[in-house]
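## Example record

The block below lists the input lines for one assembly entry, exactly as stored, with component labels intact.
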Amino acid sequence: MAKTNPGRFFEDYRLGEVIAHAVPRTVSGGERALYHALYPARHALASSDEFARACGLPVSPMDDLITFHTVFGKTVPDISLNAVANLGYAEGRFLAPVYPGDTLRSESEVIGLKQNSNGKSGVVYVRTTGRNQDNQSVLEYVRWVMVRKGNLDAPAPDTTIPELADVVSPDDLVLPEGLDFTGYDFALAGEPHRWGDYTVGERIDHVDGVTIEEAEHMLATRLWQNTAKVHFDATFRPDGRRLIYGGHVISMARALSFNGLANASMIVGLNGGAHANPCFAGDTIKAWTEVLGKAETSAPGVGALRLRLVATKGAPFELKGEDGKYLPDVLLDLDYWALVPV
Amino acid sequence: MAKTNPGRFFEDYRLGEVIAHAVPRTVSGGERALYHALYPARHALASSDEFARACGLPVSPMDDLITFHTVFGKTVPDISLNAVANLGYAEGRFLAPVYPGDTLRSESEVIGLKQNSNGKSGVVYVRTTGRNQDNQSVLEYVRWVMVRKGNLDAPAPDTTIPELADVVSPDDLVLPEGLDFTGYDFALAGEPHRWGDYTVGERIDHVDGVTIEEAEHMLATRLWQNTAKVHFDATFRPDGRRLIYGGHVISMARALSFNGLANASMIVGLNGGAHANPCFAGDTIKAWTEVLGKAETSAPGVGALRLRLVATKGAPFELKGEDGKYLPDVLLDLDYWALVPV
Amino acid sequence: MAKTNPGRFFEDYRLGEVIAHAVPRTVSGGERALYHALYPARHALASSDEFARACGLPVSPMDDLITFHTVFGKTVPDISLNAVANLGYAEGRFLAPVYPGDTLRSESEVIGLKQNSNGKSGVVYVRTTGRNQDNQSVLEYVRWVMVRKGNLDAPAPDTTIPELADVVSPDDLVLPEGLDFTGYDFALAGEPHRWGDYTVGERIDHVDGVTIEEAEHMLATRLWQNTAKVHFDATFRPDGRRLIYGGHVISMARALSFNGLANASMIVGLNGGAHANPCFAGDTIKAWTEVLGKAETSAPGVGALRLRLVATKGAPFELKGEDGKYLPDVLLDLDYWALVPV
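Predicted C-alpha cells for the full assembly:
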C-alpha cells in the first residue's frame, strides 16, 4: 500500500519548491473530436484548418481549454488530491497555441502557504506552467487550493501570501505569432459582431442549456487524466453523488457562450475564477456573460475583450445575494480575456 | 440579447437566396473513432485504409453519414432552429468521398416556400450543398421543414413547391473516382452476399438492437455541431424529455444493417426519408431493410442497390397502419442507394 | 433473414480450421483519445510521443489493451456470438507494438473441441492472432468458450483438449525492438518504484474506484466492433440488464492499477484470466494486484513482473471462498506479464 500515491498534505509543501508533474501527453485530432462531442464548441478557429490559416496560423489550434485541462489535470495528483476546495485562479496567460501532435507536460512552483487558524488545513498557492515538446511555455496560471493536513502536529509554515494581480494587464497578453484578423470571415464564423459592437457593462444571455450526464463528465475528466476520485466513485461521498470537475462546467459555459460571442475566438488570459457551487449530473447548465473591459492589441485586426462568464442552473444575470455570497444556482464565475476581430 | 441567434422564422426566407452556413470543420481520425464508438459501424471500406486501397481509394473515407451529419449540422442554426418538424429529404447525392484532414462547410439555397393555411407557419425547401477545402461538392440534398412564423402579420410569400424526383436516377449517382470492387475481399468484409444475391422485394431483419442513452445521443449530436436545444436541454420540453436528433437514428439503423448488408459499402444516394416518430433515451432501436431496386454502374465490379431502411422499436416488417400512417413503433423510413460488389 | 449472421454453433467448428475474421481496422489518435476518456489510463509510454522516444520507440504505441480489444472484437461474430460463457485465456503474447495508422485484422485457429456431457453445448479452444498491414503478428492468445449446439443431433467431435502453459515463460516474451529503459524518467512517469522494489507475494490496493455507466461500456465495446447483443440491447436478457463486456473490466482495472504500478509500462504476456462474475452499470470497480513473479529480460534496463490483477466491487485482497469459488464481488482475475524499468 506504500506504493500508491496518497497525495500531498499541507505540511508537505515548501515555499519555492518546483514540482514536475507526471504523465506527459501527446494530443491529436482525437482529443479535438472528443472536445467537440463533449461540449457544443463551435469557435471556427478551433474547428477548421482553413479558417485558422486565413487567420495567420499554420493549422487549427486545439481549443484553448483543451490546453488548460491537459495542463491542469497533470497537477491534480500533486496539488489537489487532498484538497478541500479549489479557491481561485489568477494571472492566467495562454502563451502559445497547442497543435495536434504536440506533447504537453506541467510543473508547479509553490508561491504561497498559509495554515488555517483551525490548524487542520491550509492554503497552498502554486504557479503552474504547461510546456510543449520544445520546452516552450504554452500556459501559466496561479491557483490556490485548501489542502488538509495529514499530521495535525506538523508545524505551521511561515505565512506567505503572494501578491496577485486582479486582472492580467492587456499589455501582458501574449498573442499567437502571426495572428491576423484583417481577413476574418464573419459569415463562416457564425456572427457579425465585432470588437466595436461590444460595450463595457453589456450583458448577454447565451440562451441555450445543456443537461449534464454522469457518463459525459467522467469521459471529459478522464480525458485530461484528472484522477480526483470524487468525480468517479459514487461510493466516495456520503450522498452517493459524483462531484463534477469544475473544468467541465468551464468548458460547457464557454461553449454555450458561442451564441452571442461567436467571434471571441481565443482565450488569452484568465484573470480569476470561482466555482461558486458544486455541479451534479442532472443539472441543466446555462450561461451568461458580462463585458468587463476592452483593450487593443498589436496584432492586425485583433482586439481583446475582458469577459465575465457565469454558468448557472437558474435565471441569467443573477449572481450574488444581499449577503455578497453566490446564489445557490450559480456554478461558475470566470473572468477572462478573449481575442475578437475589430 | 440582441447578439444571440434567435434562428430564422418563416417570413425571413426569400426564394432563391443562398445561405452560407457557419463554422467550417476539419475532420480527422478522431471523428472516425467516435463514430465507431457511437454506432456499431463495421463497413470495411470506412474502417480500414488497406481495404479502401484494395478498392481503388487512396485511404479509408469517412463513413458517408459522417459527411451527412457534418454538412447537415451546419444548417441547423439557419434552417431548423425554429422548425416544428423536419418533413422530408429528396435528391440526395454523395458527390465525393471525405477523407481525414478535409475541411467541410455547407450552404443552402431556398428552392421553395409555402405558407400553411393556418397562417402560423410555413414550409421551407432548401437544397443544401457540402463542400470541401478545394470547393469540391461532397454532398447535396433537398430538405424541407415546417418553420414557425415570428411575425404572424408578415405577408405570405408566393407559393413555390419545387418538383422533386421520387428517386435519384441511377444514371445520376456519382461514384468515387477510381472505385473498383473487382478485387473486393468478401471474407474481410464480413459477408459473402453480392449484388446478384439481393432481389427486389426481399426483406431483411437485421436482428440486433441497441438501447439508446442520453449521453450517447448528445455526444453524437454535438459532434456534428448541431445546436437545436431540444436535443440537450431537459428543461426545454414540458415533458422533460430530450428529443433525439433524427440523424442519430439514421446512423444507428444504418450501422445495425451491417448484419445482412455488410457489403452495402457506400451510400451514394438519398432518395427520401421520414422521421416517423420521435425517439427518446431508453428506446431500443432495431432495423430492417427492404430491397426496392437494383442498378448497374459504370465502375468495375460495382452495382447499386436501392434500399428502404426502417428503424423501429417494435417487430420487423411492420410499417404503416390501415390509415396509411406510420405505426407508433416506427422511428425512421429511409430510402437510399448503396454500392455493392457484383 | 438468411443473410444475417446467426453465429456459429458448436457443431460448426472443425479442429484445425483457420477462420479469417472480418472487418480490418485502421487505428489512429482517435482511438487513443477515446481510450483515455473511457479509462483512467496514464502509463506515460502510451501517452506521450516524447516519452516513448526516450524509451527507444519511434512514437507512442497504442495502449496494449487497445490492441487486445481490437483483435478480440473481430473474433466475436465467429467465435462467441452463441457463447454461453468465456471460460479462459492462456498463452497470450504481445508481439509488436501497434502505432497510429496501423491496420489490424485477426484470425483464429480451432485448436481444441470438447462436447459437454449434457450434449447441448461444447467447449471451443481457439488460438487467435492479430496482424498488422505488414502481415506482422502483433498479438496471439488462446481463448476457450462454451458454445451452444444449434442442432442437438449433430454428432460430437473427437475430444481434443490442447495442452496450454500455465504461464508464458519469460524466455518467450517478445519485447519491442529498440526498447530501452536506461533513461526512463520516473518523475514524468509518476512513481519512483522500480522492478527491484517489487517482491513476489507483495499485494497492492490500487485505492481508486470508478462507477460504471451504460453509455461508457457501450461506447467502449462498440469501439472494438464487438457485436455481442447482450452488451447493447436492454430487451435481450430477461432481467433487462446489459451485461458489460469483460474487456471493459480488464481495461478499467488495468488503468486503476496505475496507482501503485505506474511503471508497469507495457503488457507483454497474458498468462490467464477469468471473468469471475458479471458486471453491470452502477457497479463501482476497484482493483488490487499481487506480484506473482519476476524475470529479467535482454532489453537494456527492462525487467518483467508477473502480476495478478483483480477487479472487485468489494474489499481488496479477497478472492475466493472456502469452496474455492470466486467471491460474488470479484469481477476479474487476470494474470499477466508487464515490463518495468530496473
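The longest helix of chain C spans residues 64-79. The first strand of chain C starts at residue 18 and ends at 20.
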